[in-house]
Amino acid sequence: MADRSIIRGVVMDSRITFTFNEFAQVCGVEQSLIVEMVDEGVIEPIVEQGDWRFHGESLVRAQQALRLVRDLGVNWPGAALALDLIEKLEGD
Are 34 and 24 in contact (CB under 8 A)? Predict the structure, then answer.
């Protein structure tokens, strides 16, 4: 019998933005965790009329941070630092 895997993905366009609620849903986490990621510098919201919105790039970064925390036991500040370093290396 063949091994069947389900692959999930989201095609990101830099022009796409998510509301706070949408962002939490797409990330699959509680809203309080999104607030924690913002507070720790993992992701940065766009503030529009007092509401938070997030770019598609923030989704990728949030998902990477969630994997670092979940799989490697890294804390949020450590995840933010690791992602900053990765982005710097990829930019050079």
Answer: yes
pTM exceeds 0.85 for this model = no
What is the rounded CA–CA span in Å between residue 58 and residue 20?
12
Domain tally, the chain: 1
Domain that holds residue 75: 17-91
In this predicted structure, the answer to whether residue 42 has a pLDDT above a threshold of 80 is yes
DSSP readout, 32-90? HHHHHHHHTTS---EEETTEEEEEHHHHHHHHHHHHHHHHH---HHHHHHHHHHHHHHH
Q: How confident is the model over 70-86, as a mean pLDDT? A: 95
> Rounded CA gap, 44 and 62, in Å?
10
